[in-house]
Design goal:
The protein is an all-alpha fold. It is built from ten helices and two strands, in the order H-H-H-E-E-H-H-H-H-H-H-H. The protein has two domains: 100 residues; 160 residues, no CATH class. It is 68% helix and 2% strand. It has a two-stranded antiparallel sheet. Helix 5 crosses helix 6. The longest helix has 69 residues.
Length: 290
Amino acid sequence: MNEEKKSNNKDLVSAGFLFLLVISVWYFSWQYIDKSILSKEDGLSDIEARGLFGDKFGAINALFSALAFAGIIFTIFLQKRELKLQREEMKETRGEFIKQNETLIHQKFENTFFQLLKLLNTNIDSIDLRDKRSGIVKNTGRDCFKEIYKYWINSIKREINKEDNNDKKINNVSIDKALIVFSEIYDQFKSDLSHYFRTLYHIIKFIDQSGIDDKKQYISIMRAQLSSYEQTLLFYNCLHSNGSEKFKPLIEKYSLLKNIDKDLIINKNHLNEYHTDAYGRNTSVKAIYS
C-alpha cells in the first residue's frame, strides 16, 4: 500500500513538472516573439511582422497535427494488441482454473472413494458366524463368505434330495431353485449380507455417477477387493430380487464378474443369466458361455 502511494505521488510530481515546463516554454516563447520580432521594413508594423513570423509555422503546425493524429492511430493499434494479449492471458488463466478445479474434484472423489472402501472392509471385519448352541465365534471377516456359500450349497443338496426325481446332481439345479434357497440363506444371514451388498452397491453407484474419466480404474480397484466367494454370492444376489433391477446392470456395465471362479457356479448354464460384458475378458467363462 505504501509503495503504491509513493508511486502515485511520484506520478503527480512528474505531471506537475511537465505542466509547468509547458507553461514556461509557452510564456518565454511569447515574450521572445513580443520583444525580438520587430519590423525592419517600411510600412510594416511590429504586430504585422510578428504575424508573418507566425504564418511561417503554419505548415509545421499542420505537420505536427498530422503526427499527433498518426500517434493516436498508433496508440489505438497498441491498445488493440494489448487487449488481444489480455484476452489470451485471461483464456490461459481460465484454462488453469479449469484444470485446478478438475484436480480438486478428482481429489474429492478419491477421498470419498477410499473412505467408502475403508467402510466396506470395516463392515466385512465386523461379520462373524457363531455356533447356534454355544454362541462361540467360528468364523470372522471374509472367511464368513466361504462358510455362507458352503451352507447354501448344502441347503440346495438337501432340497434336491427331498424331491421325487432321479436327477440328484447339484450341477443340474435350475436357477429358480438356486435362487429360492439363496433367498432363504439371505434371510438367515440378512443382518450381515444386506449391509455388505448395500455398501458394495453404493460404492459402484458412486463411481458410476461421478464425473471422472477413468472410472474403470477405480472399478478395478473395487473388484480387486472381492474374494472368489464374495463374487459368487454377488453373482446370485444380483439375479435375486435384491439386486436384479439396479445392481445387475452395473455389474454388466463394469465387468464386475471378470475374475469370477466358474467352478463355484452351481450350474454353468447360470452364467447365461448375465450379458457377456459382465465377465469382461474372462475367456474361461466365455468358452462355456452358450
